[in-house]
Every structure is written in structure tokens, then in C-alpha cells.
Amino acid sequence: MIATQFVLLTTLLFTFYSASLAFPNIADLVKRQEVEEANSRTGGIPGAVNAPPPPGPPRFKGTKLVHDRAHPWKPLKRGDERGPCPGMNTLASHGYISRDGVASPSEMITAVQEGFNMENKLAIFVTYMAHLMNGNLVTDKLSIGGKTKKTGPNPPAPAHAGGFNVHGTFEGDAGMTRADAFFGDNHSFNQTLFDKFVDFSNRYGDGFYNLTVAGELRFQRLQDSIATNPEFSFKNVRFPTAYAESVFPINFFVDGRKKEKKLDMDSARSFFKDMRFPPDFFRSAMPIGSEGINEVFAMHPFLPGGNVDGKVNNFVVDPTAGDLTKPCVLYDDILNTVKGLYPNPTGLLRRNLIKNLHHFYSGFAAILGEECVEKFPYGQ
Ligand code: HEM
Ligand SMILES: *[C@@H]1O[C@H](CO)[C@@H](O)[C@H](O)[C@H]1NC(C)=O
Ligand SMILES: *[C@@H]1O[C@H](CO)[C@@H](O)[C@H](O)[C@H]1NC(C)=O
Ligand SMILES: CC(=O)N[C@H]1CO[C@H](CO)[C@@H](O)[C@@H]1O
């Protein structure tokens, strides 16, 4: 019985296969031709792609159930990457991006829009910033955690394709629930720090994380780092990202059906620690980004800088560094980091750098730097 079925199956398969070889349809031919053309354009490097343009905004922009049947939470498997971003970790654990934590910038932008209703230009800005510094620009893949073979062959050094965990690029000091790199683990959920998040929410928010708590905790985390981390640094990219991340829990982790912008501690634990949407979670009621960032900053204004001479309590302001008020300094700093990583790119790498820098600029200019003139370090 089994044998007969097997023969039948192989005969069928063979007939089908040879028929398709003998009479390839037009669609197949066109597809094969496209793949061949793409290969010649990408120089035949395994996994190499021509970087596509970023996705636009989604058509439906309201709230909806995102913890749905199509996106169940699943526990980690061996080799899955997770890192310092509770938003991206959660999207991976629900399958909005590949559950292994490796994805293209386009996939990440689509996921943050779909799962959290992040505003399109902000999603483009931060995703390309991360990709330019921590991604693989030949394969168009980026890890949300550490370095992994899944992003493809190593780019030429000093580029590293090391993922979100690489300290001093995007990941930085004085995070809310992640310790400073100086203390060892810069990306895992830290219970001691989360206890502080809860304590501050009790003290300043009646048990909820709101803008008042965000302002107090942001300032306290800066004071902690000044007092304990001899290598503390807080300027340029780290400056706006830290302030933005302080308001993200309010803008993205509060259920979109709720009127009050305050986050309860069970939901906070669910996102930060378990990388899991609360049961029946609805995303934000409208596309949203860093709303509230200026209020948080204004509660305790702070200047960019760091501890110098390897000493704690030795904070020195760096007047040349970027903060919330000098977007073009920030833009130059990011370009300099990219030029440092890619001093002499050629071929596909160079073409993808040019495209990715332009996509990055389009998001950056819309959010922060309308007055900053676009620069083309690798030509146009
Ligand atoms: C759009 C692409 C995104 C990228 C590339 C990204 C990347 C990152 C990175 C590299 C960090 C670590 C920075 C650090 O604190 O040292 C981070 C932190 C953070 N991200 Fe994201 N993120 C993205 C979107 C989101 C979204 C949509 C949310 C919320 C739903 C989110 C919430 C947060 C929060 C709250 C932190 C701070 C964690 C803490 O301080 O404990 N991110 N993100
Ligand atoms: C958690 O953070 C605290 C405060 O920054 C730090 O002292 C401690 O070493 C961290 N714990 C782990 C396990 O990394
Ligand atoms: C945060 O919550 C506390 C306690 O309920 C309240 O006093 C404060 O006004 C709230 N802050 C904001 C910005 O709503
Ligand atoms: C610069 C630095 O300390 N980076 C660390 C971030 O955390 C990972 C995992 O603990 C370390 O391997 C990196 O060295």
C-alpha cells in the first residue's frame, strides 16, 4: 500500500516536474531572469540584496487587538536573539518579526507600525540608525540582540554587524531596566533596576508609570550612573534615545482603549521582562512617537557629557556634543560613526550605504532635523 502510494507520488511529481521543465510558463521565466539579474547586481555574495526603500504608513491607523490569534506569544528557542529593546523583543516573541530576532529594516518598520502603531517617520529614523551602525548592509539583516551568523557573512572590519547590544552606538548608559555596559551585562532585563521602576511609580505615580514618574526616574538613572559608573557617557545619539525611551512605555505599552496615559505594573513587567503583550492588548489609538519627551526633559534639564579620567562623580559637560537642541550636531555625529565603520566601501556595500543613509535622513529630517542639509559621504 505504502509502496504503491510512493510510486504514484513520485510518478506524479516527476511528470509535473518534467512538464514544468519542458514548458516553463512565462511567470517562471521572468522570475528566473529577475533572480539572475539580482545576483549579478549583488556580486553573488550569499544573501546579498539591493536595499529596498522603507515601507510607508499603514492604511488603517486606529487601535486594534494586536495580541491576536495570528500572533501568539512563544517562549524563546535556542539561538533566538533578544536585546535591550523591550518593544522589539515583544514583537519578536509574538512573531511580528521573525521569532529568532533577526530581520530587515523594512520588516522591523512594518512590525512597529502594525504591533505598536509607531509613527512611520520615527520608525524609519530609528530603524535605519540602528541598521547603519549595527546591521549587515550587504544582506539587509539586523539582530535585535547580539551578533549572530544569521545576519550573514561578516562585513569588512571595522564594521561589525553586532546587533542592538553593541555598546556606544545605539545602546547606551542610564537605561531604565538595563544596566550600564560597565557593570557587564548591558542588555538583559535587570530585576534590581525594575524594582526601582516600580518604586518610582509608587512614589510619584500612585502605582502607575506616567510622565511625572518618567521625568523623575530619567533624572535618577543619570545620577546613579554619575555616582557609580566611571565610564559613564551620555551624549549625541544616546541623548535623544534615552529621553524618547522614557516616554515609550506611556505611548506604546498603555492599552489603546484607555483614556489615561499611565502604565500599570503588571503590564510593565509583561513587556520589559516577559517580552509579552498583556492579555487582549490593543495598540495605541493613533500613530504615535516621542510625545511627552519635552515635558520629561523640562522636569530636570541636563547637559550632554560624561564622567572623565575614569572617575565616578566626575561629570564634565561636553559643549560640542549633540543633545535635544542640536539636531545637526547629532546628524554629523551619526555620519561620523558610519564613516568610521565604513571607510572605503565598494560595490553593493557602497550602493546600499548610499540608499540606507538616504532613508535614514528622510526619517531623521521629518522628526528632528528639517534644517539639517542632507550629506552624501559616499556620493549619490
Ligand atoms: C523602531 C525601531 C526600534 C529600534 C531600532 C529600537 C532600538 C532600541 C535600542 C537599541 C534600545 C537600547 C537603548 C538603550 O537603552 O541602551 C532600545 C531601548 C528601548 N526601546 Fe526600542 N527600538 C525601536 C522601537 C521601539 C518601540 C516601538 C518601543 C515600544 C513599543 C520601544 C521601546 C523601548 C524602550 C522602553 C527602551 C528602553 C529600555 C530601558 O531603558 O530599560 N522601542 N530600543
Ligand atoms: C543590575 O543593575 C545594577 C545597578 O546598575 C548592577 O549593580 C547589577 O550588577 C546589575 N545586575 C546584573 C545581574 O547585571
Ligand atoms: C502622575 O500621577 C501622580 C499620582 O497620581 C499625579 O500626581 C501626577 O499629576 C501624574 N502626572 C501626570 C503628568 O499626569
Ligand atoms: C561594551 C560592553 O560591555 N558590551 C557588553 C554588552 O553585554 C554583552 C553580554 O553580557 C557583552 O558580551 C558585551 O561585551
UniProtKB/TrEMBL annotation:
InterPro entries: Chloroperoxidase, Chloroperoxidase-like_sf. Residues 1-22 form the signal peptide. Its cofactor is heme b. It comes from the Eukaryota. Its EC number is 1.11.2.1. Transmembrane segments: none annotated. GO terms for molecular function: metal ion binding; peroxidase activity. Belongs to the chloroperoxidase family. This is Heme-thiolate peroxidase. It comes from Candolleomyces aberdarensis.
